[in-house]
């Protein structure tokens, strides 16, 4: 008879599993809540959170996308999706989500911070190209010959070199 529980009951059961760190069981309960009521956004959100705890960011992103389909005007849904995208190294997509959050809620401080940190994380392709050009043009500070000479001098001073090594051929 457990299968006849209401979506609210399945959701509550999922929350209890979530609270004790049993995320796979929580996902199962949230799925049953969603099967009963696919428009119940909290089940999508907490299923996404459980997937995040399991480090399955792609599944979490899909959950947030489903919740966004139900109501695209909830800033936190976009924030959660953007955060998961950034965890998946999909920074540009994450930034687009953060921009949507700030359209919906311009004073969303956590999103402002996350957006700034994401921008600081993304490698600047122009800087990378400049650095690559500099690296290829860089000359060694010392030639191989001068390095060999200084190593020989160090060995001579420390007494590790025999007279035979120092005599010209």
UniProtKB/TrEMBL annotation:
SMART domains listed in its UniProt record = TPR
What's the superkingdom here? Bacteria
Q: PROSITE patterns in the record, alphabetically?
A: TPR, TPR_REGION
Q: Which InterPro entries match?
A: TPR-like_helical_dom_sf, TPR_rpt, Ycf3/AcsC/BcsC/TPR_MFPF
Repeat listed as a keyword: yes
Protein keywords: Repeat, TPR repeat
- SUPFAM superfamilies per the UniProt record, alphabetical: TPR-like
Question: TPR repeats located where?
Answer: 7-40, 41-74, 75-108
Q: Which Pfam families match?
A: TPR_8, TPR_9
What name does this protein carry?
A: Tetratricopeptide repeat protein
Organism in which the protein naturally occurs: Phormidium yuhuli AB48
